[in-house]
Amino acid sequence: MLATLSRFQGPLRRPPDRPLGLWCFLAEKKLTLTACYILQAARRLQVLGRYVSTFAPLQAKVRAQQKKRNVSEKKLSRYFVDHRCVRLVAGSGGKGACSFHSEPRKEWGGPDGGNGGDGGSISFKADRLVKSLAQLVPVYMAEDGESGGSKNCYGRNGRPTFICVPVGTVVKEDGSTLVDLSEHGQVYLAVFGGSGGKGNRFFLSNENRAPMTSTSGTEGQERVLHLELRTMAHAGLVGFPNAGKSSLLRAISNAKPAVAAYPFTTLNPHVGIVKYRDHEQVAVADIPGIIQGAHLNRGLGISFLRHIERCRFLLFVLDASSPEPWNQLQHLRYELDQYEPGLSQRPHAIVANKIDLHEARENLETLKSRVTQRVIPVSALTGHNTEELILHLRELYDGYLHGDGSTEGGKPTRW
């Protein structure tokens, strides 16, 4: 329209000394009737332009771009989830249909109601690519079966649901073990779907030629199950709070657990992967700190002693700058043995952390004289002597693969 108006010269507004008649204006401009309608529309736009501008840019206030808030490192860190409680609800069966065949010139067509479809079931499947139970949701509901239809049409069955879990997951109900998913691809059918209802075609017999009966589908099974990951990691860092376990895990792997100057910084276990040149990977878990009386559920309690139970070999991390670091080792062993006899006798290594401090260097020789095992002095802050720890960690891992560290008699687990 604007392109058409641009061909006419002169203002669009009517001069004040000219008559109001439309034909006078047309006779003067010598325009067609179509151009007249265009001019009338242009006048209306000019009148409306006093209140709403159609060509001017929007005068709304431009909002400033919101800046992202700085998230603390503790919220950014991802922790390892090795136990979950899930509620499983299988699908219900579809209803059976009650209908009769209808066709011209065929009065007694008989019943043709189809059966309903079966409800979907829910199964657990072990997958070696899944490493944690963090992706599981609290409730799983399977698909219901569709209802039957006329003309003997059966309802579609509900699709089965498969929940992928890591290899080594133990499924429990009310404290009793149901299954141990220890092999890749192993499937456990947890809840069964309800069966579909029967249509009136199903009830056809010689005695009843026109049945009016149809049944509804049954409800799906419902269970509340507890999942525990038996194989949490190959090695576990065991120590008192604020001993430098999280800093040590940062130094030897790519994990980024939260680090702070107060005890109980780690409230959830973290897992870091130590990679070697031959493409072998060793999983190391940062276990939250243990205090005296942890086997009596003091402090963070038994829940974290359970994490240590699933590790194949242990790394006792001692604060070498403390007055008597050898007493820490005795207390740690005592707590482990009180929780499970023989737990402290698993293949292990003693790590003397914070060796960069002057007090730690003075206590190192006394510590070596009081223990019979090998002591590896490291500094998680500066990275001093972490190579020796990584090489010794590989020695423990190789011994585990050859069967020396397999405490449960199963196959060695590769990460």
Automatic annotation (TrEMBL):
GO biological process, one term: ribosome biogenesis
Gene3D superfamilies recorded: GTP1/OBG domain (2.70.210.12), P-loop containing nucleotide triphosphate hydrolases (3.40.50.300)
Tree of life domain: Eukaryota
Keywords (A to Z) from UniProt: GTP-binding, Nucleotide-binding, Ribosome biogenesis
GO molecular function: GTP binding; GTPase activity; magnesium ion binding
Domain Obg: 78-232
OBG-type G domain segment(s): 233-398
SUPFAM superfamilies in UniProt: Obg GTP-binding protein N-terminal domain, P-loop containing nucleoside triphosphate hydrolases
PROSITE patterns xrefs: G_OBG, OBG
A single GO cellular-component term on record: mitochondrion
Similarity annotation: Belongs to the TRAFAC class OBG-HflX-like GTPase superfamily. OBG GTPase family.
Protein name, per record: Mitochondrial ribosome associated GTPase 2
Organism: Hippocampus comes
